[in-house]
Write a structure and sequence with these properties.
Double Stranded RNA Binding Domain; hpI Integrase, Chain A; four-stranded antiparallel sheet
Length: 384
């Protein structure tokens, strides 16, 4: 293929070739020639119409590149390749989240974390490596979040940021955060369990409601203390009616658990109309249910429950609170029933009522008195 004819201009080191524009009309393509570090460099300066290039502008570009004020085309290409290579080996929070997501089970907890990442963490820290984040970044971020969200929500967001950074560090992909993240104080002693009067109103509202799932799901939370996600996952194969047990799959604590099937929960399940689905409370097309908020909130409204009441989770708290208040269940047993990982998480349920406290005090006092009386009786016997 013959080389195109070069046309000189009145500017030293500037020439052009004849080409065609995108619109199909003749167009000049300007080039510049100069020496850089002892080597002859020849490169395109731009097109007449597309780049609005003129011989004078091309000459100016040539002068800047000779003086080192502007990188050559090759230098820019090399710099871009170097940047891409650096980016490829750079594990930002964004890239770490992608890797972290791959090994996560796609359950309700993952969905919550994914929302926290996409809505909050990505914009604030997604393009930074963990060791590029400074304490002030996180402190300001936390302060802004607390203007809109609860301390518990902010704690969940910051905890996810820490987990992502720890994941990258553990796999040797990146350095870790170079400081300890200070979490906002969360008041976990908030009591949203129902009073006896509220419980009665709720039960009446459930009996009058015609939704096929909501009422029974709420009763299962009340009678067993199960979490919403655990109830949604329940399959008929998880219920052992003969031996009286419920198998909880993939609970919040991670490990499958087995809890007793008490008579009240049994009566709820025996009334559930079975479908072709494996799930006891199926969602769309027989799959796993993902939400019951609208009908559950309708029941909550009919029962005139407090605004802070959560239609299902508050019933789990009610189960635990009433168990403790009965005076017959210790925290270790309650830990097993509610599948908490540690007994420390149950301290929120330890707010016993006055009657139980008085009974406990009387029992302790009576035990001391009986011990002392036994000692006195022993001394009298020895004297005889």
């Amino acid at each position: 293929m013959a080389a195109k004819k070069r046309f000189k201009t009145k500017y030293a080191g500037v020439f052009y070739l004849e080409g065609t524009s995108a619109q199909g009309k003749p167009e000049k393509i300007y080039y510049i020639r100069y020496r850089k570090d002892g080597k002859m460099v020849e490169e395109k300066a731009g097109r007449q119409y597309q780049d609005d290039m003129t011989p004078a502008r091309a000459s100016g570009i040539r002068g800047q590149r000779i003086d080192g004020e502007q990188a050559t085309n090759q230098e820019r290409r090399d710099a871009e390749q170097a940047k891409k290579a650096a980016e490829a080996g750079r594990y930002t929070i964004d890239r770490l989240w992608e890797e972290y997501s791959l090994q996560r089970k796609k359950n309700l907890n993952y969905t919550k974390d994914n929302n926290r990442y996409e809505q909050h963490i990505k914009k604030a820290f997604g393009d930074k490596e963990p060791d590029e984040i400074i304490p002030l970044d996180v402190e300001r971020y936390k302060r802004d979040l607390l203007k809109t969200y609860s301390a518990q929500t902010v704690k969940h967001i910051l905890s996810l940021l820490k987990r992502i950074a720890n994941y990258g560090f553990d796999l040797g992909l990146s350095k870790n955060l170079q400081f300890k993240v200070k979490m906002p104080k969360v008041d976990n002693i908030k009591d949203d369990s129902l009073s006896p009067e509220e419980l009665t109103r709720l039960y009446d509202a459930i009996q009058q409601d015609d939704h096929p799932l909501a009422g029974n799901i709420m009763l299962m939370a009340l009678y067993t203390g199960m979490r919403r996600g655990e109830i949604f996952k329940l399959k008929w194969s998880d219920i052992d009616f003969e031996k009286g047990f419920i198998s909880i799959r993939d609970p919040k604590g991670g490990k499958d658990q087995i809890i007793p099937l008490n008579n009240m929960a049994r009566s709820v399940l025996e009334k559930v109309v079975r479908t072709d689905s494996d799930y006891i409370f199926p969602g769309r097309n027989g799959g796993q249910l993902s939400s019951i908020s609208e009908p559950a909130n309708k029941i909550k409204a009919a029962a005139n429950l407090p605004k802070e009441t959560r239609p299902i989770h508050s019933l789990r708290h009610t189960f635990a609170t009433m168990a403790v208040n009965s005076g017959n269940i210790d925290l270790y047993t309650l830990q097993k029933l509610t599948t908490h990982k540690t007994p420390q998480l149950l301290q929120r349920y330890a707010h016993l009522n006055d009657t139980v406290l008085k009974k406990g005090s009387e029992d302790a006092g009576q035990a001391v008195a009986e011990h002392l009386q036994a000692q006195d009786d022993s001394k009298i016997v020895n004297l005889k």
